[in-house]
Write a structure and sequence with these properties.
The protein has 209 residues and is α/β, with parallel strands linked by helices. Helix content is 47%, strand content 13%. The strands form two sheets. It has a four-stranded parallel beta sheet, sandwiched between helices. The radius of gyration is 17 Å and the shape is globular. The chain starts with a helix and ends with a helix.
Amino acid sequence: MEDPARNGRTGARADWEESRTSAASCQNCDLWARATQTVFGEGPVPAAVMLVGEQPGDEEDRKGAPFVGPAGRVLDQALVAAGIERTQTYVTNTVKHFRWEPRGKRRIHKKPTTQQIRACRPWLDTELRVVSPSLLVLMGATAAQAVFGSSFRLSQDRGHPLPSDLAPIVIATVHPSSILRAPDSISRDQAMASFVADLTAGAAALRAA
């Protein structure tokens, strides 16, 4: 007899593969023209934990994978400290193409527009559906406002469960890249500790659920 739970997992992965293939040729907004490639989410499908950032960075754009650059290394360290296994976590971005502006030979991150975020929302909605996380972590104001609207203030509502029908537990926290922008080592250590505390709170809520 076939295992319905297994079939559900297999179907979710097949849906994810189909969406990832379709997103590779996405031209729903203008970002595709300057980006190297679409950077879709990665990780187990389904997964208990799903992390959502803003958009790929320069290194992610070149490699075609999310959170493999400097911010990704900060995230890896924070996940270890919070007791969350990265390999068991689905990681993605609100926007799937890198928006950048030239500065000399460098490509500098530029915040995506509301229209670009809206154009990418169907991909994120598909990921949420197939990943079906128990804990959803929105990293950075762009990710949080894409879900909760432009009035959402990360400084006021970070680190504790938020009401949402997207997952049983939803929290918002800073983007790991913000830690890299801290002006000195003391500020970076404090920002990292707060980031880890937010992730730890999410992990604790998940274990208690």
